């Protein structure tokens, strides 16, 4: 083995019941089995990464563990028929970085079936400016479209709009001609959300206490919700007849108390969005559509870049709702 074989990774371990994190030097022999070895260029930071870094949510089954639920990079070696050295690829979903070692590393070994070839028009960096958050925003939009949502339907609400998933959803919907209302708890982000294409800003507090009554005046033609809890209950109570909300997140709580009346009397739909297990065709379509339908200059305004050494602090920040937009991790910085 040469020194060139060595690479850096962020490794989580469990010590006396507590999860601790350290930067370690590893060799390819340390990597798990898999049919494709990837030279990692970028990873990113999602809310779920914050939870895993903080030892929350019991998503990691075994330590030591390399976290990071997404990666983009270049294939270095492959025994998988669909991938060859030099291919640019990305991984999201498949419990990557949770049950399997993830992307906070300069080298990863993965199953070829998890990989997506980088869609035309997307760079390795922008792929991670999107990551699971962006991919989920598109999956939520696709779910709402399947329920009949169209740009002229009326106002579409995005909650947690100051965050990663929310920010991508605002930019995406606005670019497709939707009338977007962005909900945020941060006044300092109003201008940025307007620049992303939001036509209206809704204060987080307006939604977070839950509805005053089971059926509020019809307002939303659709919604992408990253907050959950009573915010989601507020949305359900104010959806227009036969419209739908995609429930993506839980930053405001994972309990939902909601009347059945909006379902029975307005035929509204509550759709769960899961980005971990997605049919391969939908996964590829979502990535292709992101590359084609999201204005890349808007994505750039949403993203900041950090190195592996800053990931722990950023993980603490995201759990406090203190990061804005998307955080890209340059694993070679
Ligand atoms: N279902 C899936 O497959 C899937 C995939 C990706 C993400 N998610 C989930 O989606 C959510 C967002 O993920 P993300 O990576 O975009 O996180 P993020 O960047 O931290 O964004 C979350 C946003 O939620 C808002 N928020 C934070 N704390 C809140 C609170 N206590 N009450 C109300 N709003 C609060 C904040 O927006 P404002 O400051 O603008 O209010 C924050 O920026 C997370 O719950 C994550 O687990 C789910």
How does this structure look, described?
By secondary structure, the protein is of the alpha/beta class. The chain folds into two domains: 3-118 and 301-330, Quinone Oxidoreductase, Chain A, domain 1 (Alpha-Beta Complex), CATH 3.90.180.10; 132-272, Rossmann fold. Helices cover 30% and strands 27% of the residues. The chain has ten helices and 15 strands. Strands 3, 4, 5, 6, 7, 14 and 15 form a seven-stranded mixed sheet that branches. Helix 1 packs across helix 10. The longest helix has 23 residues, at 124-146. The chain is globular and about 65 Å long. The mean pLDDT is 96. NADP nicotinamide-adenine-dinucleotide phosphate is lined by residues 46-48, 132-133, 136, 160-166, 184-186, 189, 204, 208, 226-227, 248-252, 273-275, 318, 321, 323.
């Amino acid at each position: 083995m040469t020194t060139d074989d060595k690479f850096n990774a962020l490794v989580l371990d469990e010590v006396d019941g507590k999860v601790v994190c350290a930067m370690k030097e590893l060799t390819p022999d340390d990597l798990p089995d898999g049919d494709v070895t990837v030279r990692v260029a970028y990873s990113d930071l999602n809310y779920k990464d914050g939870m895993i870094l903080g030892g929350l949510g019991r998503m990691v089954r075994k330590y030591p563990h390399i976290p990071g639920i997404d990666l983009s990079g270049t294939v270095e070696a492959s025994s998988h028929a669909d991938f060859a050295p030099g291919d640019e690829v990305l991984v999201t979903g498949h419990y990557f970085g949770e049950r399997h070692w993830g992307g906070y590393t300069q080298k990863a070994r993965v199953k070829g079936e998890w990989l997506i070839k980088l869609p035309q028009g997307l760079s390795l960096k922008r792929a991670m400016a999107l990551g699971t958050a962006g991919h989920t925003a598109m999956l939520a939009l696709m779910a709402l479209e399947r329920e009949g949502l169209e740009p002229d339907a009326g106002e579409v609400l995005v909650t947690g709009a100051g965050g990663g998933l929310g920010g991508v959803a605002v930019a995406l919907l606005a670019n497709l001609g939707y009338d977007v209302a962005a909900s945020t708890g941060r006044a300092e982000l109003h201008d940025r959300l307007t620049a992303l294409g939001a036509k209206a800003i809704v204060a987080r507090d307006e939604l977070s206490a839950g509805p005053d009554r089971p059926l509020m005046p019809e307002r939303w033609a659709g919604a992408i919700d990253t907050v959950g809890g009573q915010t989601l209950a507020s949305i359900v109570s104010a959806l227009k007849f036969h419209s739908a909300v995609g429930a993506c997140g839980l930053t405001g709580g994972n309990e939902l108390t909601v009347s059945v009346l909006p379902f029975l009397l307005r035929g509204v739909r509550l759709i769960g969005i899961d980005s971990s297990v997605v049919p391969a065709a939908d996964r590829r379509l979502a990535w292709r559509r992101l590359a084609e339908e999201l204005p890349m200059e808007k994505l750039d305004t949403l993203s900041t870049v950090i190195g592996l050494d800053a990931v722990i602090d950023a993980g603490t920040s995201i759990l406090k709702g203190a990061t804005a937009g998307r955080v890209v991790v340059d694993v070679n910085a």
